[in-house]
Amino acid sequence: MAAVAGHSVRPARAQSSNEKLNIGIIGAGGRGGANLNGVKGETIHTLCDVNPAALSAAKAKFPNAKTTSDWREVVANPDIDAVVISTADHHHALASIAAMRAGKHVYCEKPLAHTVQEARWMQEEYRKQKGKIATQMGTQIHATGNYRKAVSAVRDGAAGEVEQVHVWCGRTIDPLGQAVLPNQEVTKDFNWDVWLGPAPERDYNEGYWKGGNLNWNRRWEFGNGVLGDMGSHLIDLAYWALDLDYPISVKAEGTPASPLSAPPSQIVTWKHPEKQGVFETPTAPATRKALEVIWYHGPEGMKTMAERLQPLLGDRTDMSKWHIGLAFVGSKGVLVSDYGKIVRTNDTNWRKQTVIETSTGHYAEWLKACRGKGESLCNFDYSGKLIEHNLLGNLAHRAALGAELKWDAKALSFKGNEAANKLLTKSYRDGWAPEV
Q: What does pTM read for this prediction?
C-alpha cells in the first residue's frame, strides 16, 4: 500500500557536527512528550498527533513547528531528516518502515511492532538501509549505568555459566469491560481514522484511547500487554548480556487466553540454543550454553517467580520486594538486577574484563548515529530480534496455552501448529496494509 510504506528511498541529508536535524514528531502526548523533550535540541520541524489537545500543547512549546494529524504527511515530507514515533503499538512498524524507506532516521517507542511478522519486517528493512540511516528503539534504560554494570558482570562470569534467566514485572492488566464500545460523537478535530489506522473498523469512543498506554495496551487490536510493554525493557538486559538471538521454542502459561485482551498474569519460557563465539575473555567461555529465559507478570506470575527464586537467594534479598528485575542463574550462583541495584549470592571476586562505555544518553546515542558517528546500540536489528522474541510469547499464550511450540526462525514458522502460524501476522483495515 503505497500511501503507507511505499515511498522511494532517498539518502538521509548529511549532517555536520554543528548542523541540526529537521525532526518530525509522530505522537506528541504521553511518551511522545518525553521523547520530544529528548530531541528538543534539534529543529522540531513538524508535530503530528491525532489528538488536538496534545498537538496544541506541543505547538505552544515549539511555535515554529508545522502541525498535522496524519503521520503519513510527515514521512512524505522530504525536508524532514528524522522521525520520533510515539504512537500506539499498532502504528509502530507501519510508520517506521515507511520512514526508513523514505530515507529517514527513526527513533521508535517500544515495542517496535504489533506482530511477529512486523518485527521481522523491521529487522529486514533496517538491514537494507544500514549505513544510510540510524535507528533506535525507546528502551531508555539500556543507557543507564546499572544495566551496563550488570552486563559486564554477567559476561565476565560473576554468576558462572548462565543456565536460566528469570525476568519479571509486578504489573497486571485491568479487566477490559466491553469488547466493542458504543458509538460516541467524535471529539472536535480528533483524527479517529488515523488513530484507528490498520486496526479493525470501530466506531469512535474515547474509551479506546483515553488514558494512554495502560488503557489501549490491554486490547490485542492495539497493543501487546505487559510482556510487549515492560518485556522490552527487562528482557533487553538478558538479550544484551548473553548475546541472545532467535529462540528455538516457546511455551506460555497463566490466565486463560482471551481473543480480545492481554492476560493479567503470565509465565512464558523461551529456549535458546548453544551459541559459538560469544565472549572470548579469560572468565567467559567462547561458547555460550543453551539456556532458558522465563518471564513472569501479574499476581500468579509474581507468586511463581518468588517460589522459584527465593530458595536460591536465601536471606540475600526478599524477592517479594522486587517489583521488576532479572535473575541470572548460573553455575557459580545467582545475580539479580533491576534498574538500580545488583545482588549476588556469590561473594567471590571475578576477573573484570568487560568494559562498556558510559552512555552519552539514549537519545544522544541515536542523534550521534544520525550524524554518521557509529551505530546506535538499540538499532532495529538488535531490538527487532528482542521484540520478535517477546511477541512469540504472547502468540503462544493466545494460540497454544500450556504447549511448547517449536520455532523455526529461518522459516518464520512454528512447526506443526497452523493456529499459531496464523497469528504471526494480522488483517489490516482497507488502505492500511503494508507494502512488502
A: 0.95
214-229 mean pLDDT:
97
For the cut 60, the answer to whether the pLDDT of residue 13 exceeds it is no
- Structural domains of the chain, with CATH: 2-141+363-379 (3.40.50.720), 145-174+224-358 (3.30.360)
Q: What is the 3-state secondary structure (H, E, C) of the chain?
A: CHHHHCCCCCCCCCCCCCCCCEEEEECCCCHHHHHHHHCCCCEEEEEECCCHHHHHHHHHHCCCCEEECCHHHHHHCCCCCEEEECCCHHHHHHHHHHHHHCCCEEEEECCCCCCHHHHHHHHHHHHHHECCECEEEECHHHHCHHHHHHHHHHHCCCCCCEEEEEEEECCCCCCCCCCCCCCCCCCCCCCHHHHHCCCCCCCCCHHHCCCCHHHHCCECCCCCHHHHHHHHHHHHHHHHHHCCCCCCEEEEEECCCCCCECCCCEEEEEEECCECCCCCECCECCCECCEEEEEEEHHHHHHHHHHHHHHHHHHHCCHHHCCEEEEEEECCEEEEECCCCEEECCCCCCCCCCCCCCCCCHHHHHHHHHCCCCCCCCCHHHHHHHHHHHHHHHHHHHHCCCCEEEEECCCCEECCCHHHHHCCCCCCCCCCCCCC
Q: What is the pLDDT of residues 222-269, one digit of tens each?
A: 999 999 999 999 999 999 999 999 999 999 999 999 999 999 999 999
pLDDT tens figures, 26-35: 999 999 999 9
